[in-house]
Amino acid sequence: MAVIWCDQTPKKRCFDVEPVFGNIKQNHGFRRFMLRGEKKVEIEWRLLAIAQNLRKKTA
To answer: Considering the entire predicted model, what is its pTM?
Structure first.
């Protein structure tokens, strides 16, 4: 079985995702979830992602 190392495989992602999290935290003041519970946090995070995408589309 051949071993493929990470530096030998082509890059699949051509963009960096960290600026999205930095933008949400710094520019929009999001520091912690208001709701508790895994399902509620998931819903809140998805709403944040939708808002971020809408901001990006309208800019």
So the answer is: 0.64
